[in-house]
Amino acid sequence: MNKSIKQCIPLPYLFIAMTMAPIFFIAFLFPAKATSAPYTNIESFINTYLLGVVGFWSSNFPFSSTVITNYIGLLGPIFAVIFFLKVRKGMIIDADQYANMTISKYLFGLIVLSSFIYMIVSVSYFYPHDLAAHNLKWRMFGTHIFTYATFSSGVLFIIYFITLISYFSLLYIPRLLIKKNKQH
To answer: Which residues cross the membrane (predicted)?
Structure first.
């Protein structure tokens, strides 16, 4: 009789809160538009040397939203790796849940995941989306600074989980499939 393993994926809540706090700090303390000297210099630096206007930004508060999207775009992948390492250290996974996984199911899941990652990367780094100019559903995130900061925190959180999902789909599950095929 197999004893079932209690799965555990511990989330580093303090780390998540500490990395999302600057988003709210920027949203509430930086001006909506860069009108004075220190802020215009920051805006010029971002547009010249960093990512510029990328990701989900808002024309209602172009300066603060550009700073936030650059924060997420530049530091998000670094934070995501740290998040993964913290989670991986205490993660317990029941390998038996993948017993029915076939190579065709795995490949289909890999295609879906790759499409999802492509969408997130293209939206975050290549194509700017003005939330204030979107339809009603998305406009609410570009109209109010609090909803924008909350939405941006969600984008950062999605980047965190992409690393975790990538680990499972690119390393963990293939390792199980190879082990399973060697046994047969």
So the answer is: 12-30, 67-85, 106-127, 147-173
